[in-house]
Inverse folding.
């Protein structure tokens, strides 16, 4: 089975490093990591990864704005929001906008991999 391609988007370099480490030696392959929403949208258009892991709170352009722009490029894109600020309103807004799921930070490697295996890829 082919490994699922993943693009990670988070303004925290530490989180990007942790996610890459968690996905190492798994059925997921991190093909791009971005720290800025605008750059992530551009990169998504270039590489069309199977799954996008997108931080909700980022400077400049929010995760919800980035989510909407990615879905404008590909309405079937599989975007999973990640945040430590998972209020009911924030989760609702993300899911209503079109995110496939919402993952609360922090998370362990085992919980993260279990979550990722439950994510439905591109529609």
């Amino acid at each position: 089975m082919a490994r699922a391609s993943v693009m990670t988007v988070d303004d925290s370099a530490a989180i990007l490093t942790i996610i890459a480490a968690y996905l190492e030696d798994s059925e997921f392959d991190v093909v791009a990591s971005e720290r800025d929403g605008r750059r992530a949208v551009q990169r998504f258009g270039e590489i069309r990864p199977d799954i996008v892991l997108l931080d909700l709170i980022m400077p400049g352009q929010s995760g919800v704005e980035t989510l909407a722009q990615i879905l404008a490029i590909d309405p079937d894109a599989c975007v999973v929001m990640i945040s430590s600020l998972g209020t009911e309103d924030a989760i609702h807004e993300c899911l209503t906008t079109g995110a496939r799921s919402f993952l609360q930070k922090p998370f362990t490697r085992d919980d993260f991999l279990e979550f990722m295996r439950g994510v439905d890829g591109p529609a």
Q: What stands out?
A: The two ends are 18 Å apart (CA to CA). Strands lie at 4-9, 28-34, 51-55, 79-83, 101-104. The chain has one domain: 4-117. The first helix runs from residue 13 to 23.
